[in-house]
Amino acid sequence: MDFVPSSIKAFLNHEISLVKLELVVIELPQIKPFRSAIGVRTSRKALVIKWHTKEGIVGYGECSCRPDPFYSHEFVDGAIQVIEKFIFPLLKGANTYKKVLVALSKARGWNFTKAAVEFAMNDAIRRSTGKGMLEAWGRSQVDKVPVGISLGLFENGLEMAKAIEEAEVEGYKRLKFKIKPGYASPSIFSTLKACSHPNLSFDANGSFTVDDFISLQLFASLECMIEQPFGPGNSYLQSEFEEKHIKLINCPDEEVETLGQLIEQTDNLSELNIKPGRVGGLFNTIEMMEYCFAHDIPAWIGGMFETGIGRAQNLQIASFLVDAKAHDQSPSNRYFKKDVLKTSIEMEDGVIDSSYFLHPEVDEKAFEELTISKLTLQN
Ligand code: OSB
Ligand code: MG
Question: Is pTM, for the whole model, over 0.85?
Answer without folding.
Answer: yes
